From TrEMBL:
The keyword Endoplasmic reticulum does not apply. Keywords: Signal. Pfam families: Lipoprotein_15. This is Lipoprotein with Yx(FWY)xxD motif. Residues 1-22 form the signal peptide. PANTHER family: BLL4220 PROTEIN (PTHR39335). It comes from Microvirga aerilata. It comes from the Bacteria. One of its GO terms (biological process) is alkane catabolic process.
Amino acid sequence: MKQILRPTILAGLLVAATCALAQTAAPAKMADTSKGKALVDAKGMTLYTFDRDAAGKSACNGQCAQNWPPLMADASASASGDWSVITRDDGAKQWAYKGKPLYTWVKDTKPGEVTGDGVNNVWHVAAP
């Protein structure tokens, strides 16, 4: 009986450890851009912050969110270190870094582009 349970227990521990690591993985990574180091999403697209956002609250909804798609979080996502999850006006979850909600820019068409930096003097590359 012990020989049968041991692999089963080890497999269960491995699954639990993998799930824990997946939940604590940062939702973005750092990359070099022409503006210096920046946070980028899983596709390598530059992330931005919006000056009109309050700490932990997005002010970018409707047409704004169509032009500046939020970095969405799964409903089960949880805060870790500098990363937090905020609730948008529509109830969806969005990632924030150091309290600042994060967005991509529809006019950035390939990884590493930073064409959204400085738009209307309120959008900025999210720096680590």
